[in-house]
Amino acid sequence: MRTEPCVGARFIFVIRGYGYQGAKSQVRQQGEARRALVERRQFSGAMKGKNLRYLNEHEGQPICARAGFLLLEHFSLPAFTQALDTIITANLLRPGLFTTKTFGLTEGEVISDLGLVIRPDACLAHAEIQDLDLLVICGGYRTALQADEVLVSLLHGAAEAGVKLAGIWNGAWFLGRAGLLDGYRCAIHPEHRPALAEIAKLTQVTSEAFVVDRDRLTASSPNGAFYMALEWIKGLHDKALTDGIEDILAFEASRYRRIKPSLNVSVSGPLREVVNLMDANLEEPLEMEALCLYAGRSRRQIERLFKEQLGTTPQRYYMDLRITEARRLLQHTTLTIVEVSVACGFVSPSHFSKCYSAYFGYRPSKETRLVK
């Protein structure tokens, strides 16, 4: 066994059992691991939403908000599920934030626009309304525009109790029929705009996909229902939560999310190209020189683009991508830790373990395996 001195820039130490090149490689790996522990303890904002549920940053008892969905005959199932899924996903990221309940106007089943039959949890009544923070009227393309005095009374009772009122597809018509959209802006499906404008003279009927105007939330489509629910959640919680929901349910739109949206700068083509290159080269990460060459920009230009448009550095963003992919592989495949570390471009399992622990607070071996 040979012992050689290895002289560093500011220190001298002895490496046993390694030649100079081996010692140099080990020093590099140790340096990377130390930097990961010190500098990369948190995900950059562009990637934070994807990993929000694993970071455990919001401890303590959450404040629970209660949402109710009134399912009218032939309600739009896609619009309803978009809004509901948004709320359920918030609970996936931070358990206990919301409760949901479905209602019908009568006892029994309600048929959706797709012909699927739903049995609501309860019949809507004044006593039930008092327990809600949000009541969503779920209409659909074939939902009849008829509101009897019972429904009007229930809606007035909800408004008087301080419950926020929402309507999806043509749900806004029922709010307008009850006189609860006077002085508000709203969204409704194009087919029903004339009908609403006729009965709600004091309402500004827009062509937007969704509108949130104080305590009235309306959406004209399934996509609008998603963003309407997202805005409601945003009013109750921080942006990190809604970013996390978007990363799960609208991942294409959230992929290039900027840290500082107030800058009003769109993500440029060269930056998109670099991000795509990083995504496609996780197993063998590209050096900065190669990324710059492929993108046709200088290192300084690329670094400036990342700073201005993503609020981070290229190196940190690349590491965020690799760690996020590693977690996905650990959870959703049967790959070993060694195989995952190789697939995500780490120089050794120990280096991978240290970086993983720095982000999530536990070793890869402790990660939950969803595939048995």
Automatic annotation (TrEMBL):
The keyword Transcription applies. CDD domains: GATase1_AraC_ArgR_like. Keywords: Transcription, Transcription regulation. Pfam families: DJ-1_PfpI, HTH_18. Gene3D superfamilies: 3.40.50.880, Homeodomain-like. Signal peptide: none annotated. InterPro entries: Class_I_gatase-like (IPR029062), DJ-1/PfpI (IPR002818), Homeodomain-like_sf (IPR009057), HTH_AraC (IPR018060), INH-QAR (IPR052158). Residues 272-370 form the HTH araC/xylS-type domain. One of its GO terms (molecular function) is DNA-binding transcription factor activity. This is HTH-type transcriptional regulator CdhR. It comes from Pseudomonas fluorescens. The gene is cdhR_2.
